[in-house]
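Q: We require from you a single protein entry containing the residue sequence and its fold in C-alpha cell form, and nothing else.
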Amino acid sequence: MSKPLICMTLTGSTLAEDAELAKKYAKKIDLVELRVDCLNEEEQLNVRKFPSMVQQPCILTIRRDVDGGKFIGSEFSRTTLFGSALAFASPDKTKHFAYVDFEEDFHVSGLEDAAMAFGIRIIRSMHNMNGPVTNLKERAAAMMKTGFEIPKIAFTPTSLNDVTNMFKEGSEMEQDHIFVAMGELGFPSRILSERSNSYLTFVSPEETIVNTGNIGHVTPNIINDLYRFRSIDSDTKIYGIIGWPLKKTSSPEIHNQGYIGHGMNAVYVPVRSPNVPDALALCNQVGIQGLSVTVPHKEDVMFYLSEISSEAKTIGAVNTIVRKTKGWSGFNTDAYGFQRSLEELLETKKLKKQKVAIIGAGGAAKAIAYVIKQMGGKACVFNRTLSNAKSLADKYGFDYSDLSPACIDKLAEYSGLIIQTTSVGMNSDGNSTPETDPIYFYDFKGHEIVYDIIYTPAVTPIMKRASIAGCKTCNGLKMLQYQGYMQFKIFTGEDYENVKSE
C-alpha cells in the first residue's frame, strides 16, 4: 500500500482564513479537509469556491455534533449544503473537491452519484466519541457500498489495548481505509499510521489546534520536523517512552534529534498507558524496539523483564528497556544522568560525607540514593509513607524521616543539598502551595543547594522559593538529557554526542 498522506483539518470561521492556512503549510501537508460545520453561516453558502482557492486536494466535510462536529441543523439543511458544494463541480479536477466525507448512515443517491460522476472519492465515516470500535475490519467492510469508497473509523480508546487492536486489524487490510484512535491514548495511531496501513493521518494548523487538540491532533510542524512522518516506512526502527499520564515529555525531542544527527531511519514516540502489559502489547504489535520508562512504571516494569542489569537490580528501578531475542532487558540510566549533572553542578566528583536530603522514595529516588552513596554522601530520605523512606534508607545506611512539617529539624540537619525527586510541582504555575511544593513548610536560609529533577516548569515552586532566599538551584533538564544520551546508546549502539559531520 502507498504511504499515508498528511491531511490538515481546517476549522477556521471563514474560507479566506482556511485558504491562508492551507497556503502557509502547503509544503508540509498532502491535502486539506474543509470543515464546513466550523464556518460562519454566510461562508457556508460559498463553499464550492474553496477548491480553487487552495493548491492541495480537498476533503469536503460537514461534521454533525453527534460525531464531534459543530453542525446542529437538520439533515435536510446539511444535505442542501452538500448539494450546493457538489452541484457545480467542474470537469477541471483542480476546481472541485477531491473527496467528500459521508457518514455510514448518510445515503443520498443524488449526492453519491454526483460525487462519482466527477471522480470525487467518497470517504464513508463513522465516529465513536465515547468508546472503542473493536471489529474494525468487519465494520469497514460493511461500510463500503462500492469499491470506490474509503471507510474511515475514528474512536476514543478506553485502554491502550484498543489502539493495539486497531494496529492489528489495520495491518491485515489491503484496501484503502482510514483508522484513527483519538485522544492521548491514541497518539501512536497518528504518528505510526504506516503500521496500520491507514490512508492518511490528520493534523491541524498551530493557529487552530485548540479546536482539535482534545481529539489528539498535532501540528504539521510537529509531525514533520519532530517525528519525520514522511520518512517512516517498514524499515523504520521505532522507540518510545511509556508512562502515565505522561502529559509532557521532552524525550521525543532528544531522541529524534539524535536520529537525525546520526542519519538513522528511526522514530521515538510517546506511549501512554496506566499499566505496563498494555504498553508491551502495543510494542509487540507495531515493532517497538526500545522504551524509556517513566513514572509510575519504573519499578513495576521489572516484573516483565527477562534480564536486568546488575546496576538496575541494585537500584531497584528500571528506566530503559530494549527488546532482545529472549525478551525485554532492563537498565537504569537515571543514575548516570543524575550523577553527571550533579558533578557539573557541584564541580566535584565526591560529596565527602556531605549531608543530603532526598525528597521522595520512588523509582527516581532509588537511582539518586544509589548515586549519593557512590559519591560518598550521607543522606536522609524524606517520604510521606515512612515505611518506603525506611526501606530505601536502610539499603544504603541512610537516615530516614516522614515528610511533614514535623520533620523540619531533621530537614534542616540535612539541608546542605536538597534533592527533590517526586512529581510534586510538575506542570505547576511556579507558585508554592502544599500541592505544588513538597517542603512548603521549610524556610530556606540561603546556604542550601536545591536540585529538583522536574524540568517543566523550568523553575518549580521549590526552586523559586529557594532562589529568592539566595540558594543555588538546578532543575532536572540536564539529568534528562544525559540519561537520554545513555538510553540512545543502549538503543542504537551509537554515542549521542558523536554526531556525523555534515
